[in-house]
Amino acid sequence: MTVIPSAETGATIIPEHVAIIMDGNGRWAAKRSLKRLRGHEQGAEAVREALKGCEELGVRYLTLFAFSSENWSRPIEEINHLMGLFRYFFKKEIKAICDAGIRVKFIGNTSKLPQDIQDLIEEIKVLTKDNTKLILTLALSYGSQSEIVGAVKALGEKIKAGELSPEDIDENMVARHLETADLPEPDLLIRTSGEQRLSNFLLWQCAYTEFVFLEVLWPDFRKQDLIAAVEEFGSRNRRYGAL
Question: Is residue 118 part of a domain?
Fold first, then answer.
């Protein structure tokens, strides 16, 4: 974390890693008597706003909850539309992302995604692998409980193979077997739409994360909302269980 004085925020602590649960697309559309699909479309603009805000504030890592493992139970029309949005966003934004020095990573069971989207994911990872200005992680077909189970299974296989003993396992070792092993833990988690729960997102990683819940629906999220959340984060005293 760094302290950055700026015209917009004054002197404030800037979190190194921000995670966002992008919630409220459906309610945004319903308020306007539109189909839910329109809410998802408008939500793409909010992603651009979040990226712009993180770049300007100096946030190093941004993780977005884009599609959960539970979202596969939604109506097929909505799922297909979301897949189409992912295709459109990846193809349209990749040049701008590269030019901005952003590296894109993915977590989640992406093998469940359509093959052409899997191919786009691999292309984006290769194209952006040397970028360092901002690390953008997209959680696609992601569920934190499944991720933790995967880590436990991997450790169990190593015990079975005689590569380690149960006594060797500690918090750091578990963390190294999660999909986010090369990322710092989130300093700040933002959830839009007024809901106040994690929804199976980064359960292990958010043990000491500061939460900020915003009433704004995700399609209406703008840079100023990010700044407000960062200012709230900067006002808190993080004690990590100590006095």
Answer: no
Phi, psi for residue 129 in degrees, rounded to 5: -60, -25
Residue 84 maps to a domain: no
Position of tokens 């809410």? Answer: 39
Number of domains in the chain: 1
Task: Give the CA-trace dihedral at 221, 97, 57, 29, to 10 degrees.
Answer: 0
Q: What pTM was computed for the model?
A: 0.92
SS3 (DSSP) at 81: helix
β-bridge pairing 210-213 and 188-191: parallel
Annotated catalytic, 109?
no
100 CB-near residues (< 8 Å, 6+ apart)? 51, 55, 133, 134
Residue 237 appears among annotated catalytic residues: no
Binding residues for substrate: 24-28, 36, 40, 68-70, 72, 74, 191, 197-199
**152 in any annotated domain:** yes
Known binding-site residues for Mg(2+) equal 23, 210
- 159-209: per-residue pLDDT in tens? 999 999 999 999 999 999 999 999 999 999 999 999 999 999 999 999 999
The residue whose two tokens read 């934190």 is 144
Q: Of residues 23, 187, 220, 225, which has the active-site annotation?
A: 23
Look at residues 68, 118, 64, 125 and name the one whose alpha carbon lies nearest to residue 94: 125
Q: Residue 148 is part of which domain span? A: 143-178
